Amino acid sequence: MLIRKMEARDVSGVARIEQENFSMPWSEKAFMDSLSQEEALFLVAEEEDRVLGYIGICLSFEEGEITNVSVDSSSRNKGVGSELVEQLKKEAQARGTEKIFLEVRVSNEPAIRLYEKQGFEQVGCRKNFYEKPREDAWVMMCDL
C-alpha cells in the first residue's frame, strides 16, 4: 500500500468511496477544488492504482482540522485508516501544525477507537452536528 498526496486522477475513486460511506457526501468538484487550496491537504492510500481510502485536513496557523476520512468497504480492518491518519499527522507536523481537531459521530465506534489509538482525545461535543441522521459529534484533538 502506498500513501501519497491526492491528485486529480484520484478524484473519481475518492468520490466513489465518499458516496458509499456518507449520507451527505462531497462532490467530485469539491474534491477537485480542494486540490488547488494551499491550506488543504488530502492523502490517498492506493494499491495497484486503486484508491483504498483517503484523508483530508484544512491547515490554519498551528492548527489543523480533519475534514474527511474514509476507507473503501472492501479495505476496512486492514490498517488503511491508521496509515492514513499516521501519515497525515507527519505531513501536518512538517508544515508547523501543533494540534489537530476533528468531529466524529458519537455512534461511530470504529472511527473513535482508531482516533484514540492515534492519540486523539475527546475534548467536546457538538449537539446535532450531523444530519441524515441527526446526531451529535464528539470533538477530538491530538497534540503533535
Give your account of this protein's structure.
The protein has 144 residues and is α+β, with helices and mostly antiparallel strands. The protein starts with a strand and ends with a strand. The chain is built from four helices and seven strands, in the order E-H-H-E-E-E-H-E-H-E-E. It has a single domain, classed as Aminopeptidase. It is globular and about 40 Å long. The model has no long low-confidence stretch (mean pLDDT 96).
At a glance:
With 144 residues, the protein is an alpha+beta fold.
Q: Measured on Cα atoms, how large is the radius of gyration?
A: 14 Å
Q: For the record, give the distance between the C-alpha atoms at the N and C termini, rounded to a whole number.
A: 24 Å
* Main β sheet profile: 7 strands, mixed
Helix content: 25-40%
Total helical elements:
4
Reading the helices and strands in chain order gives: EHHEEEHEHEE
Low-confidence stretches: none
What name goes with the CATH superfamily? Answer: Gcn5-related N-acetyltransferase (GNAT)
Q: Quote the average pLDDT.
A: 96
Return the structural class.
alpha+beta
Form type: globular
What distinguishing features does this structure have?
30% helix, 7 strands, alpha+beta, seven-stranded mixed β-sheet, Aminopeptidase
Topology:
Layout: E1 2-5, H1 11-21, H2 28-35, E2 40-47, E3 50-60, E4 63-71, H3 80-94, E5 99-105, H4 109-117, E6 121-130, E7 135-143
Parallel strand pairs: 4-5
Antiparallel strand pairs: 1-2, 2-3, 3-4, 5-7, 6-7
